[in-house]
Design a protein that fits this description.
3 helices; binds zinc ion; alpha/beta; single chain; Tetrahydropterin Synthase, Chain A; seven-stranded mixed sheet; about 190 residues
């Protein structure tokens, strides 16, 4: 069965080199739906608590929220970094606190200090799904991702193969020692 949750991401981007309005910088509220598949954990009668899926995903994905997402070859990138530098906000600002750990994958690099994500490919809804799956595939048993942004939407299905032991008392994933980080339950 599946547990399904959604979260919002507000971001700015553009399609560099695209022959249409989207070549201009603009913003979206994107909605990501994450479907996690596993057996039902009998102790809690659920696959996975949705707020925990959100928490796990948000830890990484908050780097995309209120962020600028640009392709690595976009000439706006050095121009914007130059402005941020001159303004003294390139390496952080006191009110920029919603930062996840910086990450670098083959498809995307996050610079949380200046709320920037640099991508290898144009950030379409399809591109976003590829990036998100790559970031979360080892943390969650993702069966399907759907991303909508304005009139655009895409979805993809995946085979789940992580073996995730869950706490029979609160449903969340046990840590590498078989202990629940929330209630202290220990697997025997
Ligand atoms: Zn757009
Ligand atoms: Zn627990």
């Amino acid at each position: 069965m599946r547990s399904i949750t959604t979260l919002d991401l507000q971001y700015a981007h553009r399609f560099y080199g695209f022959k249409g309005e989207a070549q201009y910088l603009h913003g979206h509220t994107g909605v990501l739906t994450i479907e996690v598949e596993d057996s039902i954990e009998p102790g809690v009668n659920m696959v996975f608590p949705c707020n925990e899926i959100q928490k796990t995903a948000w830890e990484v994905l908050k780097n995309f929220d209120h962020a600028l997402i640009l392709r690595e070859d976009d000439p706006l990138l050095p121009a914007i970094l130059d402005v941020y530098e001159k303004q003294g906000i390139k390496d952080g600002a006191p009110n920029n606190q919603m930062k996840g750990p910086a990450f670098k994958t083959e498809l995307a690099t996050a610079y949380p200090d200046c709320r920037l994500v640099v991508t290898k490919e144009t950030l379409t809804v399809e591109g976003m799904i590829k990036i998100v799956y790559d970031l979360l595939k080892d943390k969650l048993n993702i069966a399907k991702l759907t991303f909508t942004s304005g009139v655009n939407a895409a979805s993809a299905e995946f085979t789940t193969n992580n073996k995730i032991d869950r706490c029979p008392l609160c449903g969340i994933a046990l840590n590498e020692n078989g202990v629940c980080p929330k209630c202290g339950y220990r697997k025997h």
